[in-house]
Structure formats: structure tokens, C-alpha cells
């Protein structure tokens, strides 16, 4: 189904048409197609938690744009990731997934999380741009860190909350952030869970640029995407491949996932996660989720 939609969109895009409001299989993503550009808008109420549905939809999309002999049409030159929620990009994974007991379904979900970040990190045939104007913490921040270009608006708040619930950024965040803002700063933000606004994130190098309104953010991202989409696909891929490899071997990500899973199974982590779920009224929009990371102090 996903490959069919992608092929249809690419065909129409080639003649200057566009498709709007095409939904993913589970309804958590909306795709807007234009020539060589796909805008992916996340909408997974109540607050865009990265759950099994969102992980599956995003994974299926990323797999569908991998070049293959069975897909004669080229993948999009640019993919823009954005959110339909003004307050949240992706706040964190579904914390219920790391509560004991560990099941086959929970293991498969965590594996899909690492597959998503790996595809964002390693796909060279598409340039990924994140447009962020809400909260991105935990895997939300890890996802945006795996994308190629990142632009923030006035509502952006970036953070890593994992250590507050007894784990650590195991989806690639601790590998990617140091190359952007320095090792010492990355460790500071991971250990204290402090949030960074859009303007400061741009100053630090966490994002490429900052726009002072939602409207200029959207316009700015679209303009960057438009310019990139005009370049030959081979040149874009060559540029991405030619970049020095900043990331370690993929086996190190697998090791991180194992360590993350081991920590998730501890009694201390389980107690903190249960406290988070209770205070957040099961990860819904309220004072606790809107107050992260400051509200995390209530866990202690």
C-alpha cells in the first residue's frame, strides 16, 4: 500500500501535480506530495507519543522510499518532517512499552524505534529536514538529530528526558548530539534534562536555524527544500556520501539498545516510569507533559 501511494505521488509530482492529505495506514502521518518533495506531518493524539502505531507508520514510509529494483521511480529528493500539534513534535516513546514484563511486542517496538533512526541516519538518496515548533524530547529529539537539516520556530523546546526515568538516550541521541554541540554540552543536557528553546538551539548548533514565527518557519523550510529539490539527485546523494562519517559502527547502536532494555527492566526505572505515567495521567496533555522537563522534578 505504501509503495503504491509513493509511486502514484511520484508520477503525479513528475507532471507538476500534488496530492494533499494522504494518510498513512494507521492514520498517524499525513503526506503532502509535490515534485521531488514529500512533507510528512505527524498527528498522533493526544500528544504525538511515539507508540507502536506511529513507529510502524514511519518505518513503513522510510522503507518505501529506499531505492530498489522493484521501484522504477526515484525516491523523493527531500522529505520534511513536521507536526500538526502546536505543542508537541514527539515528546517521548510510549512509556508503557518499557514497563516490565518485557514481551515480544515490546521488544519488536523498541527494535522498530532503532530501525527508524537508522534509516534516517543512513539513507543517502533523500535529504531529511525537520521543521520543529513544539516539544521534542526523548526519541523525538533523537529522531530530529538523525535528520540532515533542522529548523526551529518560537515554540520549539528540545531536551532529553530519559535519565529522569532511569534510562538514557538509546536511539542514537548520545551518538549524534556531541558532534553538534560538543561532548560536554551533550552530557550536560542528557544528565540534567534541561530544555533548549529554538533560538538557543540554533546558537548551539542543535538546529541549523531559527525562525521567529510559525509562518516564517514553514516558509523558510519550504524554500530550503525547494532549492535542494532543484539539484540533480546524483549530486545530492554524492554530497551526503562524501561527508565524513560522524557516527560509530551500527553495532554500537545495537549495544545501546541492549543496555537501554536492561535498565528498563530494573525496579528503580519501573518505579520512575510508573510515577511519570501517573503524574502525566497516562501521557496526555496536561500540566505535567506541558511542563517537561521542569515538571520531571516531581518524580523525585
TrEMBL record:
Signal peptide location: 1-17
Keyword Signal recorded: yes
InterPro entries: ClpP/crotonase-like_dom_sf (IPR029045), Enoyl-CoA_hydra/iso (IPR001753)
Name of one Pfam family that matches: ECH_1
Hydrolase listed as a keyword: no
Keywords, comma-separated and alphabetical: Signal, Virulence
SUPFAM superfamilies to which the protein is assigned, alphabetical: ClpP/crotonase
The protein's name in its UniProt record: ClpP/crotonase
Annotated organism of origin: Pseudovirgaria hyperparasitica
Species lineage: Eukaryota, Fungi, Dikarya, Ascomycota, Pezizomycotina
Amino acid at each position: 500500500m505504501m509503495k503504491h501511494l509513493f509511486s502514484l505521488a511520484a508520477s503525479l509530482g513528475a507532471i507538476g501535480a500534488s496530492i494533499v492529505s494522504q494518510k498513512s495506514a494507521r492514520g498517524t502521518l499525513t503526506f503532502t506530495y509535490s515534485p521531488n518533495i514529500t512533507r510528512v506531518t505527524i498527528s498522533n493524539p493526544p500528544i504525538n507519543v511515539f507508540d507502536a502505531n506511529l513507529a510502524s507508520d514511519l518505518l513503513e514510509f522510510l522503507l518505501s522510499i529506499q531505492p530498489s529494483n522493484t521501484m522504477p521511480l526515484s525516491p523523493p529528493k527531500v522529505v520534511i518532517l513536521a507536526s500538526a500539534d502546536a505543542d508537541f513534535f514527539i515528546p517521548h516513546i510510549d512509556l508503557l512499552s518499557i514497563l516490565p514484563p518485557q514481551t515480544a511486542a515490546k521488544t519488536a517496538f523498541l527494535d522498530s524505534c532503532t530501525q527508524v533512526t537508522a534509516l534516517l541516519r543512513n539513507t543517502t538518496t533523500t535529504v531529511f529536514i525537520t521543521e520543529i515548533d513544539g516539544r521534542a524530547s526523548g526519541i523525538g529529539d533523537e529522531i530530529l538529530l538523525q535528520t540532515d537539516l533542522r529548523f526551529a520556530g518560537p515554540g520549539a523546546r528540545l531536551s532529553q528526558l530519559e535519565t529522569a526515568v532511569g534510562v538514557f538516550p538509546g536511539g542514537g541521541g548520545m551518538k549524534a548530539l556531541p558532534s553538534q554541540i560538543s561532548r560536554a554540552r551533550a552530557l550536560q543536557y542528557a544528565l540534567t534534562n534541561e530544555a533548549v528553546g529554538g533560538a538557543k538551539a540554533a546558537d548551539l548548533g542543535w538546529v541549523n536555524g531559527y525562525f521567529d514565527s510559525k509562518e516564517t518557519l514553514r516558509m523558510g523550510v519550504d524554500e530550503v527544500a525547494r532549492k535542494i529539490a532543484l539539484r540533480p539527485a546524483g549530486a545530492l546523494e554524492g554530497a551526503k556520501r562524501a561527508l565524513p562519517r560522524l557516527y560509530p559502527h551500527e553495532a554500537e547502536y545495537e549495544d545501546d539498545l541492549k543496555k537501554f532494555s536492561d535498565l528498563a527492566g530494573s525496579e528503580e526505572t519501573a518505579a520512575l516510569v510508573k510515577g511519570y505515567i501517573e503524574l502525566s495521567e497516562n501521557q496526555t496533555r496536561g500540566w505535567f507533559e506541558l511542563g517537561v522537563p521542569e515538571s520531571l522534578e516531581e518524580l523525585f
